[in-house]
Amino acid sequence: MQSFEGHWRKFYPNAQGPTGWMMRRSGAVHWLRFHSLPQSKRYAETEAERRVLLARQNALAYAVLGHSDCWLVQTCWVASSQEQKPSPNYPFEFSFEFLADEGDDDDHPWKVYASAQTWGRGTFDNLLLAIANDDIRDTIWLSCETGAVFAPYDGGVDLFLPTQSQIETLKAEHRDWLSPHPDGL
Length: 185
Fold this sequence. Notes:
This protein is an alpha+beta fold. The protein is 28% helix and 25% strand.
């Protein structure tokens, strides 16, 4: 299988880094955001809300990734005083490093770690909950076949799909999960 960096550069040559917010900021096309909970609630507080969150995220991830080969990716910032590390629960390997242009004087390097995986419903529930609780950040899954990206965050999921027709299909299928904000935020 091609390296993660090879897949990343093939599908997103102009994106600054493999995080949802960096992809949005760099103008990645065919972007769509869904909220994890009804009424755009940010954090699950009950077991019932956690079940809703996992059901939504698993449905969206399956729609984007299917049951296929993908990359699980965590991007960690590096600062002089401390460095983030990827989750120890997955066999991440260092892929590449880049300098983020964050528009201030405190730009710092980011390290990208990737792990070859196969998406499966329920397989990543513990990781999805950690991301939803903001315990883990800057995590994406990238389809090796299509380049589609599933990028969960605390509050929802950003999707980057190969075609606008896929965006329209998911919008129609999950209309109640969309943000009411005119820009989709």
